[in-house]
């Protein structure tokens, strides 16, 4: 057995080393990494051989290698992912803009599926799913142990079929089932209205291919209804992000021509770029020509941007650009902090790698990653405050998250105490009727943060938060 194991191990090492030779040569050609560590590769081959020869039952070699690649990529950060044949097919379907499912933006937390944001108008939205809900079961399958891609696959299916999701809602300290009927997801990402004479509200729920075109149409509609708009609220709360070019276009709608909107920086030359408020940097985007036909008043109208913990990625780019150029007042809660760029690299005709290649930076050079955008004015969700803010997760709370590169957030003992107090309040809150616990709909006449934004535009006093504080940073240890 020992001789057999030794042979198996060295054969495996030969296979692994041979397969990686091409990678090593490519790596050297890119001048980005040192030679591969042979001792560690030998250990990898030895473990591969032991599993192959000694495991309680035969294992598939291809699956072992695929799982090893999957684990290696997953260990980098929460957003990098390896796509095998099945996952690659589903990824291509997802990026086509149309899919059949329940309609939620998700991530992983403690092995469970976490709702980042329900897509407005989707079956999940209508069923009442909320940001930070945890999905513990999909039909009869426990989510614990599933990859994010496997969970997505189980939630997708044919139109008009049912899926049963078991939800744990931290804010109410309860678990409950929700039956959702799948349908083709077609998100209307832009809504808006004149709130009162002279003041308008435009909500962008996600940055999609048509979002800027829809935004331009909504702006035209608002200015036709009220040509004397004196203030505008751009609502990016719970906007999980999306297309970078759409974010650049929306920033350009408010900013002077050709100023910097966002920059990116990574190891490779293609990961280093500066995107500006110009038509050339949004070329190819649906409705890009609308940048030249927007009302001229939009460049000067006072603006408030609303963000919260669910505002991520592209929405943080917009908020950061308008904040750095002093073009808008940012209000709400500190944003999610998803400031990394994922690039898809094909590995063959039916496999690929989505890998984090760079970080986003605001015009003033601030890293968004794991920090987010800190509002100029912290404003609670309700007049009574945001009692559960300490429980809300951000990028910096995710396991294995990429650092900002500009210092890490402090481990705040006071925050842990605040979490304990918030949990006690949760127990009390869970005893109230559901109607009393519901946060008012965005854009409604009871939307406290929107009311405060309008007050700010009018020059009236704003009720700033008494509970929220910025999560500070400290320099990394050398």
Automatic annotation (TrEMBL):
UniProt-listed CDD domains: cpPDZ_CPP-like (cd06782), Peptidase_S41_CPP (cd07560)
Domain of life: Bacteria
Gene3D superfamilies in alphabetical order: 2-enoyl-CoA Hydratase, Chain A, domain 1 (3.90.226.10), 2.30.42.10, 3.30.750.44
Annotated region described as Disordered, given as residue ranges: 399-445
Ubl conjugation found in the keyword field: no
SUPFAM superfamilies with a match to the protein in the record: ClpP/crotonase (SSF52096), PDZ domain-like (SSF50156)
Protein keywords: Hydrolase, Protease, Serine protease
Domain (PDZ): residue spans on this chain: 88-170
The family this protein is said to belong to: Belongs to the peptidase S41A family.
Name used for this protein in its record: S41 family peptidase
Organism: Rhodoferax potami
Lineage, broadest ranks: Bacteria, Pseudomonadati, Pseudomonadota, Betaproteobacteria, Burkholderiales
